[in-house]
Every structure is written in structure tokens, then in C-alpha cells.
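Good morning,

Both structures are done.
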Amino acid sequence: MDLVQLLTPEGERVDHPDYPLRAGPRELRGLYRDMLLTRRFDAEAVTLQRQGELGLWASLLGQEAAQIGSGRATRPDDYVFPCYREHGVAWTRGVDPLNLLGMYRGVNHGGWDPDENNFHLYTIVIGPPLLHAVGYAMGLTREGAGSAVLSYFGDGASSQGDVAEAFTFAAVNQAPVVFFCQNNQWAISTPASHQTRTPIFRRAEGWGFPGVRVDGNDVLACLAVTRSALERARAGQGPTLIEAFTYRMGPHATSDEPRRYRADAEVAQWEAKDPLLRLKTHLLAQGHADSAFFAELAEEAEQLARRVRDGVRAMPDPDPDQLFRHVYVDEHAQVREEQQTYQAYQAMFAGEGGRG
């Protein structure tokens, strides 16, 4: 199996002829910090959901290297189209974790301005973000912009027709887009083996653009491969498909129970490939970090968790009337009628101190 790897599970640095990478101690420590802080607020979000503070949460546990590595490969002028689990990518683009949790708490529809960080709003529907990304990339080409687009999807989404259509438009138009598939091997309870007979990255051959499979638990490989693909896109050489072979350590979402469909031995096998553990091992072995660094980082992570926890609990309830705003650009008669009906319903409970 072709797999680009620059950092082995044992923390040993190796070279790859096609993807050279120079990363000094400071950058390596920064990548580890990104992954640790992302993992910590992700874990806090799971706890908050279990406590009834969030309606749902889709954990990224185990996929930190794929997201941080690819996210840090982008430039500020690049545009990113996530799906709904790209919390680590959001972190690299400067999106406050509270904005992510606000959406899952139901108090906003994505509390960040997409154009402020060039990071699009989450899309819960599987597949369409790739079409959005290709359309945006085609627009960049027509405007003569020198930036690129990075679009995320999972192995489950690879079975959607939207993905095939996106590949077609991207290939025909030489769109400056990189498709980044996080193959975590489980589309809820459906294994990847039930969706494809060949590695996902090889699908690119049929559309006439490059595909590469990278060790998704190797943050350095994800960084190098994505950086190369984005440079290729900016140079007018068209799209690339990257398959980050990784593993979803937790449930698909907090409504899921993965022990019903996968074996504990499989999870244990992947725990030994933990993306944070391998980089920490490398940092210690090379003398790039010491116990004081990790202790300070652990405290920073706890401070972040406290800020997230307190911030979520302090979020005000949204005005139910917002359901009817921004449905259409202009006022719509049917929506207005539905709004008036709902307002009348709410008024029935005004004297009881509740909204109904």
C-alpha cells in the first residue's frame, strides 16, 4: 500500500523523495500544541454534550494530525470548505472553538464570518461542500487570483454522487482545488470496505488528476503532502485528491455507540498509532521539548477547556423568531404567515412565564 510517511508510529523521522519537509523544533512544538489543544477542547465538548449542554457533537479524536497538518499547510488567502468535524482545521484558521460549540448548542448557525478567516460554515449534509469548493475555485481562476481551495470530506461521503460531480467539474476546468479525504474507515457503522474495492486516492486516476495516500496520523506527512498539492493548485496545474488514512477513535457522533459494530482490538491497534504520542516521542528523543514544556501546555489546555465550558454555559438562548429571518433575501408571504402563526402560539404561554 503506497503511503506517504515522514514520522513513524515509533516517532522516528524518515524522508520521502517526493515530499521533503524542513520543520525546526519551534514548528514541531507548535504542531504538537495545535493537536493537544484541539484534542482538549474536543474532549470538553463531548463532556458538555453528555451533560446536556450541547445537542450533539462530532468528535475528531484520532484525526488531529490529518486536520492540523493539512490546515497549517494553507495560506491566509486560501479558502477552506469543511464538512462538520473539522474542528482542528478551524483552529488553524483562527476560528474560536466557542463558535463551533455554539452551532452544536443550537444558538447559532455557525457563529463565525466565513470571509474573516476564509473558512466556510460547517455543512452537515454529506457531499455538497466539494461542489461548493469547486465552484469557488473556478471563480478564483476567472478572477486571476493566486490562491487555492481546500475541501474536506470523509470516506462515507466518497460514495455520494456530489463527490463524483465535483471531481468532474474540477478536472475539466483545471480548478485550483485540493480534495482532502479523511478516511477514518467508518461511515457511522459502515466500514470503508463496503464502499470501495480500491483505495480512495486511486479514484483520481479516472478523472485525470493526481491522487496520493498519506499516513493520516502523521502530522508532518499531512503538512508536506497538502502543502505540495496546494502549491500545485496555485500554479495552475489543477486539482489533487489526498486520502489521509486515519482512524476515528471515538463515536461517529455522541449519538453513536461504536462498540456495537467494531472490535476493541481494532481500536487498541490504532491507539498505538496515536498522532500526538508519536510526535511527543520524537520531540523528547530529539531534545526539542522537555517536561516543563509539556506541563505548561497541559495547563494551557485546561485553561482552554475552562473557557469553553464557561462560555458554552453562558450562551444566551436564541430568539425563536430568528427561525424565520434570512430564509429569503426579501420578505416572503408564506414565511411571514408562518412567523405570525408561531408568534400567536408563543403568546398563549406569555402569562405562564414560558414560550411553549
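Second structure follows.
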Amino acid sequence: MQGLAKPFSWPITIYYEDTDAGGVVYHSNYLKFFERARTELLRSIGVSQHILLEENIGFVVKHMDLDFIQGARLDEQLNVLTTVSELKRASITFCQELVNPEGQALCKALVKVACVNNVKMKPQAIPQFIILELTKSEC
């Protein structure tokens, strides 16, 4: 099952704290940028992390592939573009790109997240309302 007809875009500003001594984004900070964009995508479709936690539902990263193409630098204004490439009963695979204003990708990620019961720490079906929102033609 596919979702998100068009990419969800989340703006990122590169701050001093994101960079190494050379003013280039430290590699682990790309993970934070991608995580924030996935969280904001869910928020944009009405998914509350607080309500999910109250229902013992969580999303955990199961697998991630990263491709560091070009270093992002201090003070750059960038966007994380996120699409759903695969939607299964208990997992979602996201394609994400950190892009500059010209649309050039600086870093790409393929991220598979699993829906789990937070008490049992076992996979469970993604709530139907999330699937419905992710498969709408417009996001």
C-alpha cells in the first residue's frame, strides 16, 4: 500500500549546535532532522503522540539507510521532504531527503518504522485512522 501523493516538507535551519568545528552538520544530527520531520508529518495529519502513548502505541525505528551526499552548513535554510514509500499492517517505510533551496539533496534516508505495543514491545497493527490519513491523495 502506498501513501502520501506529494512529499511533506518540513523546514530546517542549521544552527551552530548542529555543526562540528568546521561548520558542517555533524553526521548524527541528520537523524534528528529526519525524526522531527516524521513527527511533524504525523502531527499534520492529526496524530497525537500523547494519545498514542496513552493507548500504549509507539513507533520505533526498525531499519535505516542513510546516504550522506553533501554536508549541510551553518545558517543554511533547508527542507526535509518526506514521503511514504511502503505502508504495511505494522510498519511504514519513509523516504526522506534533506534538500537545499535549489532542490539538491544533501542527505537521503530510507527509514522503516514499526508500530509496537509499548507494554509488550511486540509489533501491532497501525491504527486504521493513521493508515486512512496517510493514504489520502493530498497531505
